[in-house]
Fold this sequence. Notes:
Helix content: 40-55%
Number of strands: 3
Number of helices: 5
Oligomer: single chain
Amino acid sequence: xxxxxxxxxxxxxxxxxxxxxxxxxxxxxxxxxxxxxxxxxxxxxxxxxxxxxxxxxxxxxxxxxxxxxxxxxxxxxxxxxxxxxxxxxxxxxxxxxxxxxxxxxxxxxxxxxxxxxxxxxxxxxxxxxxxxxxxxxxxxxxxxxxxxxxxxxxxxxxxxxxxxxxxxxxxxxxxxxxxxxxxxxxxxxxxx
Length: 192
């Protein structure tokens, strides 16, 4: 087995582990719900970024400036990000239980109370604008990358296109936008 095939096999196992973690979160959540569809569709890109060695991160010092930034613009998929972050050691896996309760740091959308999360997200399209700002700020010396995952439904929002135009106009080569095209918009499933 080649190195590449071995790495893909390990990433496939990690993908399954994260999906099981999401299901466990749903089972133990106070309302027994965690937006499973959106979380499941976010797993592959998150596993590739974090376990595939793409993003530079430091779970031991999540607020450190010497790392890349990631924003989950499709904030309702927080269970996927929480599964990955718990697996990496940003916080103890026991915090995945009893989510969406008043006592939990996992309340339906990511927020800065969760280690490694720079901003709260939830309103459609908001995350890309924040990622563009972080990419602009991280162009100094040394330079760090800014990653953002949006949902396909967000692409209908005007602020997404304003952020895209600004990023292109500024030549932000340290910005990576990942579109989770799962055709599963909340209110309208029309193809984009």
